[in-house]
Amino acid sequence: MLYKFYLESYKGLSRDVWLLALVMFINRSGAMVLPFLSIYLNQEIDLSLTQCGIVMSFYGLGSVAGAFTGGVLTDMLGYYRVMLTSLLITAICFLWVMTLGSFPWLCAGFFTISFFADIFRPANLTAIEAFSKRENLTRSIGLIRLAVNLGYAFGPFLGGYIAAYLAYNYLFIFNALSVFLAGLFFFGFFRKKKKEVSDYKAKDETEIGRKPWHDVPYMLYLILLAVIIVVFFQLIYIVPLYYKDGLGFDESMVGLLMGMNGLLIFLVEMPLIYALEKYFQSLSLIMTGGLLIALGVLSLGLIQTAWLAATVFLLLITFGEILSFPFSNTYAMEFANERNRGKYMGFYTMTFSIAHVISPLLWLRLADNSGYNAVWYAGAMACLIASIAVYMIKVKEGPENANSPSSVTQAISTKVSK
Questions:
Q1: What 8-state DSSP symbol labels residue 44?
Q2: 15, 267, 324: which is closest to 146 by C-alpha?
Q3: pLDDT for res 181
């Protein structure tokens, strides 16, 4: 019975969504640099924690610029050209950044990598929407996330052994290779579809949709989401370093723990989305996921046994991610229409990009000045407040149509006008 339910959660998704998921799996299977970036910069390049935070914030700034640029280019050119160009240039950037060693050049290098890499993301979200029936949209997003996280389970796991037994430069080489192969597969699968996108865009080029930066309710929603993401990104930017320095794990164990996050998502996310989307509203699930992320971060400060702290954190933050992010994506899409979806998805991905700027700079500096426990307690409190704020918006709407963007718009607009 459980097996049939698991298979049922995958039914009805289009062939193109499956092919896009395969491209994303190949791309993310080589994701070895970012999970070990704080360790690489601190212990291989010998930067201080504050300098590490600055370098990684430049990565975030590039992500912001790339997400905005990608949204604009997607509405102008269609997803195909944007995604293919992004993949091929990003592969070259990884090989270039591998050769850099000085603090200013590392800032420039990681800005460049993330700029070209994140041009891809609004185009990717637009492609998912184009290939999905409305009733399958959240599960289509879930499938892409599943592919990303399965790759992310494999990449950091292998990367941990490469860093421990070979050299950190090989992380850049394998990452570049995986991105390049993803570009080749994408070209092979989707090159015949690019004309369809061009024709579709031509029909709409005389119509102008509203701009996301003029949509106050949408922007307020993204601000609340950004706080949750900033806390979640502790998983990427400071937790690996804490595993090594604070808990005494070596790189192979760090890679295993990071990979388990992706493996759990691969095993659980799709059937869980399939079960929950029928009975719960998106904002309720975003709020619940945020609360789990807050508890997960807090567990690192409260639990003294190393393996138990790592296990509880892993479980809570993974299930928080599963509940929050697929539904936050679906909810964001409902604010947009066919004429402005690229820009709206650009701003949605910019929310993650801005978190890439704030998170390393904030948490690594706080750890440097006040210790790791200050990071866990401050993060838990911020995430808790943001999650409750999302819930309060939901309550303000009233019980009917609580999942409707129009009702959210009315609720927030009323609050703003007061």
A1: I
A2: 267
A3: 92
String of DSSP letters for 254-268: HHHHHHHHHHHHHHH
Residue tagged 């291989």 (tokens)? 44
Cα–Cα–Cα angle for 53, 55, 57, rounded to 5 degrees: 65
| DSSP-based three-state secondary structure for 305 | coil
Measured distance CA(335)–CA(20) in Å, rounded: 24
Among 3-7, 133-137, 219-223, 320-324, whose mean pLDDT is lowest?
Answer: 3-7
For residues 76 and 103, is the Cβ–Cβ distance under 8 A? no
- Residue in the structure block whose two tokens are 């070979």: 166
The amino acid at residue 320 is G
Torsion of CA 236, 237, 241, 246, to 10 degrees: -90
Q: Distance of CA 63 to CAs 117, 154, 331, Å?
A: 8, 23, 22
Q: On the CB side of 80, how many CA atoms lie within 13 Å of its CA? A: 17
Q: Any residues with CB less than 8 A from the CB of 418 and at least 6 apart, and which? A: none
Rounded to whole angstroms, the Cα distance separating 200 from 341 reads 13
Identify whether the C-beta of residue 103 lies closer than 8 Å to the C-beta of residue 55.
Answer: yes
Determine the distance from the C-alpha atom of residue 20 to the mean position of all C-alpha atoms in its chain, rounded to a whole number: 17
Q: What is the pLDDT of residue 1?
A: 56
Tokens of 153: 């389970």
Band (pLDDT 50/70/90 cuts) for residue 109 is: very high
- Is pLDDT at 200 greater than 60 in this prediction? no
